[in-house]
Amino acid sequence: MASEANRLDGFGDLWWDQSINDSDDEFAINDPAKLVVNVRVTGDVRAAETVPREVWGGALCVTQAKRTQADLSKIQREVNDTPGMIFSDAGRDVVGLHVVHDDGSLQRRMDEEYGAGVIWVDSALVSLRHFVD
Domains along the chain? Predict the structure, then answer.
């Protein structure tokens, strides 16, 4: 499925969800027939449904993305040399930049450089003020 989705013009990302399964059978909870494929594209959502349908006959949800996977990957590579970075990830229209510590200045800098909401800075260490205030 991923290789087919990657062919889509404006491919954003893909993930699998499991629909609600209210069965009492513990094995039925992982029923593959209950899987939902989620695909996001920057282009025409209706047109994007045709490619996954070539290989997937189950539940499918195609929605609008703001950025392509290629754009997010490019941004991720650009921020991977950020001092104090632990790791980074990308998906669902955002690049996650996980760092040892950010007092807010790194998030502000990323918002100024890439636009608000494009990069989410996650600080492993937080000020005790967050817990006291």
Answer: 2-64 (no CATH), 69-132 (3.30.70)
